[in-house]
Amino acid sequence: MTRAARVLLIAVVLSSCSGSATSTPQPPELTIFAAASLKQVLEKAITVYVAPGPDPTFVLSTGSSTALRTQIEESARADVFLSADTINPQLLVDHAIADGVAVPFASNTLVIIVPKDNPAAITTPADLGQPGVRIIAAGDEVPITTYAAQVIENLAATNGYPSGFAAAYASNVVSREESVAAVVAKIELGEGDAAIVYVTDATASSGVTTIEIPDAANVRATYAGVVIGDITEAPDQVAAAHAFLDWLAGSRGRAVLEEFGFQPPP
Length: 266
Known about the structure:
The chain is about 40% helix and about 25% strand. It has helices at about 5-20, 40-50, 65-75, 85-95, 145-155, 165-170, 180-190, 200-205, 235-250, 250-260; strands at about 30-35, 55-65, 80-85, 100-115, 135-140, 175, 195-200, 210, 220-230. Helix 2 links the parallel strand 1 and strand 2 (about 55-65).
């Protein structure tokens, strides 16, 4: 090899080494699928989150927990799934779609909402069984439907409630919506007289009035999240997703959740 060729080779090697030494990891893009009731708190959370590595950019998609879980099972692109229950995340774990275990990160309770002008004059939970009351509910697959059914069952067993209260409530349901957000919207528009929703959704709305559910009849909804992906195929992406979920379930994420009325998980 001539002297000129050796000099050229050394220059190429040094240039390559210099480039690798100064390169920085590209920030990941994390796609979050989350229950509709988490929309506002997550919009705040992703603005204050500081990652252990490059700060990710976020794509947030919200809706019914069950519908989002189904989309993930059908290969929709997601890195973190945050559900309004523990059942849907656990199904992804059981089906080997998730990396790691489901992580509880918050809880919520329920409340009755009515339009601001309260045309049906509802003042207590017992009024939900009165003839002619138009109740807006969520679909059978939406987690809050299970929680609301438990509340109605608990109320029906309360002293002073008529024996037919649960059946009367069911007969008053006039529509079933795809998410809690859609339920709240219908009450805000006056398209129904009452609904049972999460406390956080009621607090976030300026178009409804709330009626408390007695503590003895109320239920606590536990929210859980899980990381989606295969760490053997995308280790950096999965690690970034775990970092965000761990932060959300930790003290700093919990502080943001509590700003919006969420409680710690049980």
